[in-house]
Amino acid sequence: MVRRNFKIGGIDTSNVNISANGFATTLTANAALASNVSFSLPGADGNSGQVLATDGSGNLFFADSSANTQAYVGDSLLSNTALILEAGDGVSLSANDTSGVVSFSTSMSNVTSQVISVDGSANSFTITKSVSNSHMVLVSYNGLLQDPTTYSVSGTTLTISNTKPLLADSTVEVRYFDFFSLPGVTPTESVAPSFTYQGSNYGYTHGGEFIPSSLGRTTTSRRFSFTNDSTGNISTGAQLTTATIHGAGSSSPTHAYVSGGITTTATTSKIDKWQFDNSANFTKIGDLTDHAWEKTGHSSDSNGYAVGGRNPTGKFDTIEKFPFSSDTNATDIAELPTTFYRSAGISSAAYGYAAGGRGGAPGTTQVATIYKFSVLNDAPGSTVGDLIAATDLAAGISGDSYGYVSNGDPYTETLQKFPFASDANATDIGEVSSKGNYGNGFSSTTSGYITHGYYAQPYDGKAVYKFPFASDVSTTSISPSNYFGTAVYRLTTTQY
Question: Which DSSP letter does residue 149 get?
Fold first, then answer.
């Protein structure tokens, strides 16, 4: 029954009563109503537990009741579970104290591109960065953007979903998006930024001391290829600001950094910077907080790190950080549990690791300890586990899932690894083809590389050894064995 104050064709009172079973349901207009309001009901019933929602334009629809997890662009419902914001450099967040609205803006200035020439023999290609899924890259074929469902990505392998090889003389372009932490937001360790410490093209050595030492020290930078095992001993033409040994190396996606070390006259605090494969020399961009050598070098997406070390007056437990985005001095951000130096430096997406080395007073105690510190927040470091034996002057190599430590003093051929996913001791996985210490570690996206800096007699600073990250095997010597022509040790290393 509809009462007499209901008018067909319009509403002429402030409420409408609809009765059933002797009871009434009343629809009442809001007393603050200032204009006509029209609602359009859904065309079908919703699911159990859903609620009636509006798009703000009078259109009603059924939606899940967890309204606080719903996200809209315009009037379109995007998700009823989560909203993920991904962006690059220039990210900013601002909140309105009155409305509670959070505004998000960014400029995607850090998009990088790779162009692959197709020779007509394959539909799978090696890309320069390890990618977790096809939605993390944009792929174009002969200039046409491809739907992510038409290709797949597994690590560094891109496969175009075509059972036949792609046409010869065509091109595939891959565009990568490097994601950075949001200003003012501290990321958790489970949401790490993309991994940049590994290189795709070359391993680099900077400075060093000739063997025998009577030949002096050098400012020269050299490189060897990660993609061609016959290409080594190439001078980049770049020179450090001064001849330096025992520096700490850090790598951004575009530049090499050498911090601290010993020049021909004294210990130094300088931070040198050089754009990869540029004809210019290194330039000094700032200073560490102290003069020191034998620090470990580390890299995150946005910062370089120099950790530990010593000088003639003492030793350090400091973790120093300097930004890649601007040329400025380093800051002391935290400490490891003890002082140390001569450790192997290793980087993962979330942590920097210092493995082995010497602790206590300079020149006294070798240690097997593996320390770590977060590159996602400025917090004190902690202990992870132990190497299989106490050692120093070992080489550190950064894999995708493991850190690797090779050789060391006392002279050893051991190659060992420890996991990034958990705090655990290292295990012996193989042997390096020759003994050595003062070794240098390099990391590509698929392999680890080692050069021996010194081995009593004969000097063995010229060979390069290689092992895959995919399996636990001993190293193989890259041919030719005299990659660097002249034996040099106490080098600083980076990769690109």
Answer: G
Two structure tokens written together for 366: 């070798």
- Quote the pTM value: 0.63
Closest by Cα among 194, 56, 84 to 130? 194
The answer to whether 304 and 298 have CB atoms below 8 angstroms apart is: yes
Tally of residues, the chain: 496
Separation between Cα atoms, residue 281 and residue 274, nearest integer Å: 7
- CB of 352 within 8 A of CB of 296? yes
Spacing of C-alpha 237 from chain mean position = 28
How far is Cα 282 from Cα 260, in angstroms, rounded to an integer?
14
Contact in structure between 292 and 244 (CB atoms under 8 Å)? no
**β-pairing, 209-210 with 488-489?**
antiparallel
d(CA 72, CA 147): 24
Domain boundaries 202-495, corresponding CATH code: 2.120.10.80
Amino acid identity at 406: S
Q: Is residue 407 predicted with pLDDT exceeding 90?
A: no
Q: Domain map of the chain by residue range?
A: 15-86, 111-177, 202-495
What's the Cα-to-Cα distance from 17 to each of 8, 23, 382, 424, rounded to whole Å? 13, 10, 70, 71
pLDDT tops 50 at residue 88:
no
The torsion of the CA quartet 137, 143, 147, 152, rounded to 10 degrees, works out to -50
Tokens 């001095």 sit on residue: 329
* Residue 135: DSSP 8-state: G
Residue 183: the pLDDT is 44
Residue 272 has pLDDT above 50, yes or no: yes
Q: Which residue has the tokens 């980049």?
A: 236
Quick one: which of 404, 286, 414 has its CA closest to 353?
Answer: 404
Angle at Cα 435 formed by Cα 433 and Cα 436, nearest 5°?
A: 125
CA–CA dist 423, 220 (Å, integer): 38
